[in-house]
Structure prediction request, 215 residues.
Amino acid sequence: MSKSGSISVSVIKRLPRYYRFLGELMKQNVIRISSRELSEKMGLTASQIRQDLNCFGGFGQQGYGYNIEELHNEIGKILGVDAGYKTIIIGAGNLGKAIATHMNFEKRGCKLIGIFDINKAIIGDIVAGLPIRHMNDLEEFCHENKPVIAILCIPKDAAQEIANTLVNLGITAFWNFSHYDLKMDFKNIAVENVHLGDSLMTLTYNVKALLNEKK
Ligand code: NAI
Prediction:
């Protein structure tokens, strides 16, 4: 049984990467792997990997390594990839449409069930097989369908108010792209703020360091 309730945030953040990596090894029909091999492939230390995986009860066997499928399944369970959490997108502009169309929700424990916007010109358009609905229909939709995750692809200014409304409608988690760092006064709400720009700036910082080295 996993002890996911007590796993540190830094370990949780590494789990999707382990999951993705092990999935790729499964596709190559690799059956098992040692922590040393896994560490070399993933750019982590072997002891870091052993420590991380020990958090879930240690799947590795001395001299055998890890059974890839078993470990992949177990990490999948911890991440909740089979959960099929009902998910809605708020904001069907460029980003909302791109996420709706390109994110493989089912593989990541989510099921996209609704897309909402206020722009009358796009209401009824089909994106990822779903009609864009008007925000006026949000309340009724949530009462009927009980989504748990909302993806916010709306302008910054609208984010906090919409998030508050959504919590009152039963939303428990936000994947927030709005550039507004949500402040949740509610207990037991999960928020993942995403800023692609931060990632790009980390890259530019590293480029700067590399180019300076070459001078
Ligand atoms: P966009 O202008 O194409 O789409 C925004 C959509 O939100 C529009 O369809 C608009 O009608 C809708 N909208 C506005 N107010 C609303 C409300 N109160 N309720 C429901 N829908 C509403 O913009 P885009 O490119 O899709 O970006 C969306 C947001 O995400 C922007 O604020 C942008 O800055 C941000 N963004 C964040 C990124 C990140 O890494 N976090 C990356 C790219 C964009």
